[in-house]
Design a protein that fits this description.
Elements: H1 2-21, E1 25-30, H2 38-53, E2 57-62, H3 65-74, E3 81-82, E4 85-86, H4 90-114, E5 119-123, E6 130-134, E7 137-139, E8 152-154, E9 160-165, H5 167-175, E10 179-183, E11 185-187, E12 193-195, H6 198-209, E13 213-218, E14 233-235, H7 236-244, H8 253-264, E15 269-274, H9 280-286, E16 293-296
Length: 298
């Protein structure tokens, strides 16, 4: 009887959040271990379906780095990385698009649909959903080094950054009762295809939709302090200070930068949560304590 009462209490705890977020859009960046573990994949699909059934509007943006690396390895194509971005020539781009839009995207859609949802897969190229341009890196300070040598431009190939989002497509799917699932590739002005960081795509889509929340699934508990302990809440100012003073480890920096841009774009809150924990998405949205780090405006 006690366990039955506890289950009822959990439902009651979720009620104010269900009421509060009814009709609101949530953008979820899906990646990491949650995409490769079968139990977690099923759990994620069920979380997304439940969100939709109780009146929220989930929009999924997914990564696929490990899957791309696996396919490139099978084809004996070596991967090189610059500041966390995969150097992407035309041959690599063909594999990236095939894996993200053709394999990973369709698997996520199929899993959601298999368990009772109505998901539709999209590439950023569909209907010019994501317009992109080539991402440029420079070596050293932009003003040159102490000998006044100009910085060197590093060409990392067909890696892009988001210029604009055609959110009419996403809104149309939401209004029709579907769950959009988006692969992070974009199209350039000359119809070239670009590989784009999934966190950045999720941030831009969340801003464009004025989403209530942006939720980033990671392979750690959330944002950790210098002592290695979880920080449950951060303001945008706190996050900027932690990046500036080196408190944040390198892999988390792009996620925080993406979070800060989303907040500037009108997103109310960003959550960085542990995708390795089963049903972490529901625990973060529908319980009092949550399970990760929330980032809020100042």
């Amino acid at each position: 009887m006690d366990s039955e009462v506890e289950r009822a209490r959990i439902l009651i705890e979720a009620l104010p959040y269900i009421r509060k977020f009814n009709g609101q859009t949530m953008v979820i960046k899906y990646g990491g271990h949650a995409m490769v573990d079968d139990k977690l994949k099923k759990g994620f699909a069920l979380d997304i379906i439940l969100m939709k059934y109780v009146g929220l509007n989930p929009v999924v943006v997914h990564g696929g780095g490990p899957q791309i690396g696996e396919f490139l390895g099978k084809m004996s194509i070596k991967s090189n990385f610059v500041r966390g971005h995969r150097v992407t020539d035309e041959k690599t781009m063909d594999v990236v698009e095939m894996v993200l839009a053709g394999k990973v995207n369709k698997e996520i859609v199929a899993t959601i649909n298999q368990h009772g949802g109505q998901a539709v897969g999209l590439s950023g190229k569909d209907g010019h959903l994501i317009t992109a341009r080539k991402l440029q890196f420079v070596s050293g300070p932009e003003t040159g080094d102490r000998f006044d040598n100009p910085p060197e431009i590093i060409d990392i190939g067909l890696v892009g950054e988001v210029v604009s989002v055609n959110d009419r497509i996403i809104k149309s799917l939401i209004d029709s009762g579907f769950i959009p699932v988006i692969a992070p590739v974009g199209v350039g002005k000359d119809n070239e295809t670009y590989n784009i960081n999934a966190d950045l795509v999720a941030g831009h889509i969340a801003s464009s939709l004025k989403a209530r929340k942006l939720i980033l699934l990671t392979d750690i508990e959330g944002v950790l302090g210098r002592d290695g302990n979880l920080i449950t809440s951060l303001t945008a100012e706190d996050a900027n200070h932690m990046i500036a003073d080196g408190s944040i480890k390198e892999g988390m920096i792009p996620k925080l930068q993406c979070s800060l841009e989303a907040l500037k774009g009108g997103v109310e809150k960003v959550h960085v949560i542990d995708g390795r924990k089963e049903h972490s998405l529901l625990l973060e949205i529908f319980t009092d304590r949550g399970v990760g780090t929330e980032i809020v405006p100042n």
